Structure formats: structure tokens, C-alpha cells
């Protein structure tokens, strides 16, 4: 039996993923750049599934049950990680065959598996691999729930995971609506009603104005960075800083003019981000 129980701190291990890149477990729980700027630094819960490997039919069934759940996890800001002793190339093939989008980590040396006390040393068919365990972790890597999947019925259902994650998410400081309905938050995550009359002229708000080039924009999160022309620090922005309605996007490399909002703890963020074609001057 594993030496961990609810309330214990899970080891923050580093293992290669399915591409061979080293990944630290706490990196999956880390708050997003947007959350950090809003002061919501709790981070995200992580479900860590240890299994025997691609050749185990019960592992295959468990992974297939999780594939339809992965999109729900994404919109719930919850993370999923699979760990086995399979080599990264084998995991990459298994992952692709499943249609899984979450990371598969390789503990080829069994260091983490041994440290958790879940190395299988009994069966000829599955010897020297991980026993099937699922750990539901809080953002600080404290163990919330442990599932022993030696018999398949011991592995968590999607509904059990959903209930575990709901319980954890309810403890976040931003779980309630009121956490977002503050002036400070709305200076970064700007309500659409600000743009009902279109883009105001740059600087009309009294804020300083700068020019720059969009360096990055992530379609999934709606967050990006602008490299200012004065070679200063890159300026963060959320898609809500682009005047308009609906979900707005912008291509990296686009020239923009924007207003700069300074925050005591978050650094500068951009507001009223306008492209050269759509620009209005004061």
C-alpha cells in the first residue's frame, strides 16, 4: 500500500514527458499569468494517474474513460497527468492512439514509483511496474484523495473525480462571482460594456499611451504580451483589453497602440489595444 494518505504532501518530482522534456509536477499546478495578475495565486488541482503501462487492458480502459473528460477538465482549470514506467516514445504512441491531450510522464527508473511504495513485485505479467493508483492533489500538492486501482472497481469514475475537483475548487479565493466584480480586477479583465460605443481614442482615459508589437497571443487563454517600442518590459494583456464584442484575437507581429495601466503587484498591463487600421486618436 502507498505510504501516502489524505493530508500528506505529495513529492514534487521531475520526470520526462512523452516528448522527453523534463517536467516538474508543481508546474502543472502553477497559477496562470492572468491569475497571478489578478491576485488569484491558489493554483490548480492535479489528478495524477499511475498505471502499469500501454499493454495493460485495464489501464487502456481507464485512459479511454478519461479521454472524453479531458475537455471538461480544461474548462474547469483542472490538470491531469499520467505516469508509468513506459519509455517516452512508447507513451507518445499510446497517448496518440488514445487521442489524449494531457501529459504522459515516464518513470523508467522507477524512482518515483518506489518512493511512493507502489511498485508491483508480484505478477509475472506486470512485474516491476507501477501498481494502479490515482492521486487527487490540491494545488499545493497536498493529497486530497487516494484511489487504489488494484481491482478496476477501485479506480475513480469520472463522476467521483468531478466531485473531488469541485470540492477543491470551492476553496479557491476566486470561486465566487464577487471576487471578479472589483475595480482592480476589472482594470485587467475588462467588462465588455466598456466598449459598447467602440474604441475610445488612445489616451482619452488619461492613461499613458505606448506603441509596440504583439509578441505572443495564446488562443486558449486569451492572454498575450506586447513588446513596447521603448524596449521596456513586455506588457501583459487579456483579450478583453481589445475593444469590441465577443472573443477577440490578434496575431503576433501586429503593430498596436495601447494604454498602460500600472498595478502595485501585477506590473504593467495593456488597455484599449488598437491596431494601426482600427486606431482612433484623441
Write the layout of secondary structure elements.
Layout: E1 14-16, E2 22-24, H1 25-29, H2 33-38, E3 46-50, H3 57-66, H4 70-75, E4 79-84, H5 88-98, E5 104-106, H6 111-115, E6 119-120, E7 129-130, E8 133-137, E9 143-148, H7 158-169, H8 183-186, E10 209-218, E11 223-228, E12 235-238, E13 255-261, E14 269-275
Parallel strand pairs: 3-4, 4-5
Antiparallel strand pairs: 1-2, 3-8, 6-7, 8-9, 10-11, 10-13, 11-12, 13-14
Would you give an account of this structure?
This protein has 282 residues and is an alpha+beta fold. The protein folds into two domains: 14-178, Glutaredoxin, CATH 3.40.30.10; 191-275, Nucleic acid-binding proteins (OB fold (Dihydrolipoamide Acetyltransferase, E2P), Beta Barrel). Helices cover 21% and strands 24% of the residues. It is built from eight helices and 14 strands. The strands form four sheets. The chain has a five-stranded mixed sheet with strand order 5-4-3-8-9. It is elongated. It starts with 13 loop residues before the first strand and ends in a 7-residue tail after the last strand. The model has no long low-confidence stretch (mean pLDDT 93).
Helicity level, as a percent range?
A: 10-25%
Along the chain, the helix and strand elements come as EEHHEHHEHEHEEEEHHEEEEE
Helix segment tally: 8
CATH architecture of the largest domain: 3-Layer(aba) Sandwich
Q: For the report, how would you describe the main beta sheet?
A: 5 strands, mixed
Tell me, briefly, the overall form.
Answer: elongated
CATH topology of the largest domain: Glutaredoxin
Tally of structural domains: 2
Structural class of the helices, strands and pairings? alpha+beta
Number of strands: 14
Taking strands numbered 1, 2, ... along the chain, how are they ordered across the largest sheet? Answer: 5-4-3-8-9
Q: At the first level of CATH, what is the class of the largest domain?
A: Alpha Beta
Look at the structure and give the mean pLDDT.
Answer: 93
Query: What is the radius of gyration computed over CA atoms, rounded to a whole number of angstroms?
Result: 23 Å
Portion of residues in beta strands equals 15-25%
| CATH homologous superfamily identity of the largest domain | Glutaredoxin
Distance between the termini: 69 Å
Spans where pLDDT lies below 50 across 5 or more residues: none
Amino acid at each position: 500500500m502507498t505510504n501516502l494518505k489524505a493530508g500528506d504532501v505529495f513529492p514534487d518530482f521531475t520526470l520526462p514527458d512523452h516528448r522527453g522534456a523534463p517536467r516538474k509536477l508543481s508546474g502543472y499546478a502553477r497559477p496562470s499569468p492572468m491569475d497571478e495578475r489578478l491576485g488569484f495565486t491558489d493554483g490548480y488541482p492535479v489528478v495524477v494517474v499511475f498505471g502499469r503501462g500501454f499493454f495493460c487492458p485495464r489501464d487502456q480502459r481507464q485512459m479511454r474513460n478519461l479521454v472524453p473528460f479531458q475537455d471538461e477538465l480544461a474548462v474547469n482549470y483542472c490538470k491531469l497527468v499520467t505516469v508509468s514506467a513506459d519509455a517516452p516514445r512508447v507513451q507518445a504512441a499510446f497517448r496518440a492512439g488514445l487521442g489524449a491531450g494531457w501529459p504522459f510522464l515516464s518513470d523508467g527508473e522507477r524512482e518515483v514509483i518506489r518512493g511512493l511504495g507502489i511498485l508491483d513485485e508480484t505478477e509475472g505479467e506486470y512485474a516491476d511496474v507501477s501498481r494502479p493508483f490515482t492521486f487527487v492533489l490540491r494545488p499545493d500538492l497536498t493529497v486530497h484523495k487516494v484511489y487504489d486501482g488494484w481491482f478496476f472497481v477501485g479506480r475513480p469514475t469520472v463522476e467521483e473525480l468531478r466531485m473531488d475537483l469541485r470540492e477543491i475548487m470551492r476553496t479557491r479565493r476566486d470561486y465566487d462571482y464577487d471576487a471578479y466584480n472589483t475595480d482592480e480586477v476589472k482594470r485587467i479583465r475588462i467588462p465588455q460594456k466598456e466598449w459598447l460605443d467602440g474604441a475610445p481614442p488612445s489616451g482619452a482615459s488619461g492613461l499613458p499611451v505606448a506603441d509596440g508589437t504583439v509578441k505572443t497571443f495564446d488562443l486558449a487563454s486569451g492572454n498575450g504580451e506586447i513588446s513596447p517600442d521603448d524596449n521596456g518590459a513586455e506588457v501583459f494583456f487579456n483579450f478583453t483589453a481589445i475593444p469590441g464584442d465577443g472573443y477577440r484575437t490578434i496575431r503576433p507581429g501586429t503593430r498596436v497602440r495601447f494604454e498602460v495601466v500600472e498595478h502595485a503587484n501585477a506590473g504593467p498591463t495593456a488597455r484599449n489595444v488598437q491596431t494601426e487600421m482600427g486606431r482612433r486618436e484623441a
